[in-house]
Amino acid sequence: MQRARAPGTHGDPGRQPGRRALLAGVGATAGLLLLGCRGEPVDVRQQAAIAAGGSRGYAGPAIELAFWTGFTGGDRGPMERLIARFNREHDNIAVRMGVTRWADFYQKLPAAVDSGRGPDVAVLHADQLATAAVHRTILPLDDVADALGLGADDFSQVLWDAGVFRGRRYGIPLDVHPLGLYYNRTVLADAGLGDTALPRSRRDYLAVLEELKGRGIQGSWVSPALFTGGLMFQSLLWQAGGELFSEDGARALFGSEAGVEALSFMLELIERGYSPRDVGQDADSIAFTNDRNAFIWNGIWMLNIYASIPGLRWGVLPVPTIGAQRAVWGNSHHLVLPRQPSSGQGRLKASVVFVDWLSRHSLEWAEAGMVPARREARESAAFRRMTEQAIFAEQIPVVRFPPAIAGIDAVRASTLDLAVNEAVLMRSAPREALRRAAREADALLSDNLRKFGGAP
Predict the structure, then answer these.
(1) In angstroms, rounded to a whole number, what is the distance separating the alpha carbons of residues 377 and 301?
(2) What is the number of domains present in the chain?
(3) Using CA atoms in the order 248, 13, 339, 90, what is the torsion angle rounded to 10 degrees?
(4) Alpha-carbon span 71 to 365, nearest angstrom
C-alpha cells in the first residue's frame, strides 16, 4: 500500500538549509563588532543584572513581550497554547509569539537585535548559543539562573552544560531532542519478525537486516543528507570514541580513525544491500511511511508526524550501540534573552517572569513531541505515559551535543556534511572524503578564531 508523502518530514530541523550563509553574512558584521572591543559591553552586564530582578516577579505597568521562535510545524500549536495560558494567568504581561522558519531565523535575529528591533525573549538551539554570544545578540544568564535558583539538578548535567559558552550561561534549556531508532511494525511482521528482533547492538542490527534482505527487503536506508545521514554519522563517530572538533575550536577531529570507522559502517549497510544507493532527500522517511523501510535513525521531532499518518504501525527504540560505547546526537531548545536597546531595559524583568514560567511548564511543552528539560517533568507519571518520548528520554545520559564553538555550524555544513554526502553516494572513499574535509575545516576554524577569539 502506497501512502502520500508525510508532510514536513524534516520537522524542527528544517532550520538547516541556508546555514552556510551564517558566517558569510552575519559573521562579517560580528567580526567588526569584536574588533572594536574585546571586553563585554557595559550595557550587556547591566541588562543581565536588571533581568535577574524578574525572579521576584513583575509589578510594573501592562506590557507586551515579543517572543520569537522557529516553531512552524507541529510544535507551533503546543507553544501557542502555553502562551495563551500564560497570558490568562498574568494581568500585566502579554506575550505575542513571532514565528520564522529556522533557516531564516538565525539571520533575522542578530540583524533585528543590532537595529534595536529584536524580541524580548527567543528560542535558540544549543548549537547556536556560542555564535549568538560572540555576536552579542543574547545576554549572559548566570545572574538570572542564580536568582531563579536553577542548576544542573533541575535538568541534568549534560543539558545544563549545553547552555554554557566560555564559562558563562546563555541559555535555559526547554527540552532535548535526540535521535532514536524508529521501526516499522508492519515491515517486520510481514518478514516474520517480532519484537524479539528489535536491535540494541551492532550484531543485532546486522542480523535483523540480513533477515530482511533474505526476504527481499532493504531494511535500513542510508541518507547522504544531514537529516538523517549526517546525524547518524555524528552518533556513530561518538560511539567509536571520536570527536567532531577540538575543544578550543582550532582543529577538526572527524577525520580520525573513529570517523573512518563510523562512515565505513554506513557504507557497509549500502554495500551489503541493506540500503539502496543514492537515497534522495527524505526518501528514507517516505519509504518508512510507505512500509518499504524497516528502520530509520531520525529525531524525536518525527513522533507527531508519524503518529498522524493513518495505518502506519511503528515504534521507537534508543539508537543501537554500533561502536564501543553508547552515544547519540542530540540538540536542545534554549530560552534566551536578546540584548535590548537602552529604552527597552525595563522589559527585562517581565521577560524573566515569562522564561521562568515557561521552563516550569515544560511538561506541557512535551505535547510538541519533545523530551522536557526539567527533571521533575521527566520523572512525572504524566510523562512516563508518553511512551515514545519516555524512550527517547532514556538516552539523556548518553546524548552528545555539537560543541560550543562560535561559527561551528557553518564550518560543519561546508565540510563534514559534504564529506558524508560524497562517501554515502560512493563518490569518495570514507577516509579520503573525511581527511579532505578536515583540512578544509581547519582553514575555516583558523578564520573563526581570528574573528571570534577572546572573551565574548
Answers:
(1) 18
(2) 2
(3) -140
(4) 12
Report angle CA 152, 227, 110 to the nearest 5 degrees: 60
Closest CA to 403 of 233, 162, 102: 162
**Confidence band for 345, pLDDT divided at 50, 70 and 90:** confident
Contacts of 446 (CB under 8 A, 6+ apart): 250
Is 0.70 topped by the overall pTM? yes
338 and 258 both lie in a single domain: no
Indicate if 233 and 355 belong to the same structural domain.
Answer: no
Residues 253 and 169 occupy one common structural domain: no
- Domain of 308, in residue numbers: 178-329+405-452
| 383 belongs to a structural domain | yes
Domain of 231, CATH number, reads 3.40.190.10
Instruction: Quote the cell numbers at residue 310.
Output: 493513518
| 441 vs 254: CA distance, rounded Å | 10
Q: What are phi and psi of 168, to 5 degrees?
A: -125, 150
pLDDT digit string (tens) for 261-293? 999 999 999 999 999 999 999 999 999 999 999
